[in-house]
Amino acid sequence: MEQKLTFNELYEAYQVCFKTKKKKVGTYTFVNDTLCQNLMQLLEELNNRTYYTKPSNCYVITEPALREIYAAQFSDRIVQHLYMKEIEDILESKLVDGCCSCRKNRGCDYALRLLRQYLVKTSEKGTKDCFFLKIDLSGYFMSIDRQQICNKFSTLIQEEYTGKHKELLLYLTPIIFKNNPSLHCIYKGSEGVRKMVPNRRKMNPESDYGMAIGNLTAQAGSNLNLSNFDTYVIKELALPNYIRYVDDIIIISDSKQKLVTALPKIISKLQETHQDINNKKTKIDTAYHGVSFLGKVSYPYGYQRAKRETIIRTYERARQIEYTDVNNLLAKANSQIGTLKNFNCKKVIRNYVQILQNKVQETIYFDENKWKFAKKK
Fold first, then answer.
1. 8 Å CB contact between 111 and 251
2. Per-residue pLDDT tens digits for 295-313
3. What is the helix (H) or strand (E) element at residue 71, kind and residue range?
4. Hey, which of 34, 152, 189, 229 has its CA 20 to 30 A from 240?
5. Pairing relation of β-strands 248-253 and 67-71?
6. Average pLDDT over all residues of the chain
7. Distance, CA of 56 to CA of 184 (rounded, Å)
8. pTM exceeds cut of 0.85
9. φ and ψ at residue 210, rounded to 5 degrees
10. Which residue, among 244, 287, 214, has the nearest Cα to 135 in the 3D structure?
């Protein structure tokens, strides 16, 4: 039987959301302008079915490529966390192991470890032929059919959800997934830079396609969108060594012909969800010279290193770190070298230390015993 959402349930979602967004201006306003009152108002809107999404903030990022990012208001983020908390388990049951993005106990490092495992196993540590098919989807988030995603989540909730908030979730599903944030967004930044963003990387206010990359539910939607495709490749095409991180796909096989035969079928299957491949970045090749994936290069004998572009980007970020407070410095520096630690990048990290500004070097140092930055005494 459907039960009303309680204040404690909403407050739990707020706490999870607050952990990652505590330094945002919208968070400060929501929390400090009578938090309890704001939560009670949001609770009333959800229980009375009068909730609607607020205008999103729109930004343009330049790395790794120019694209629009939409950031939801803090109250909408709370609702997204509440929604995902209720459906997370049933969504996980629909995803394959090789789907690595935005999932608990998975991520970029997990995908790279999985790739190394597949390469070593297939090539028997580099002693046998090993091939890879690399696929890049063109404008993935902007090509997602919002109505199709809405229907998939509605069906998932109708058939699989056994909790006490089914009606609320079914009510929220079209509000969350059919929303086009570009319609009433608040743009933050230079209009000139925004005009430079290619059409394939920004949302069209008049289109039924496209999801906001910055939203938690959009990440979940991107996973569910290709869940049937993931299963099709692994089971029907018999290619179990499969990894997908958002729109980047890697398939490892001991037969080049098998990959060549599978590619047209893969392209055809992707049409069901309106996705096209980027022909320039899609290729079939031997793994002997290394497989470039997620900023790293992996080899059949188990060795992994950072790509040249990743190293250059890391050094550029080091030059841009300015002295603020010590805790902020430590967080930034350790975050920037975090993805390099496990990929034979000791020399890169040592060079990174030398690039930091003098005042920063006077404040923090690199502890090679713990392999992270620490505060100087």
1. no
2. 888 999 888 887 777 777 7
3. strand 67-71
4. 152
5. unpaired
6. 84
7. 7
8. no
9. 110, 140
10. 244
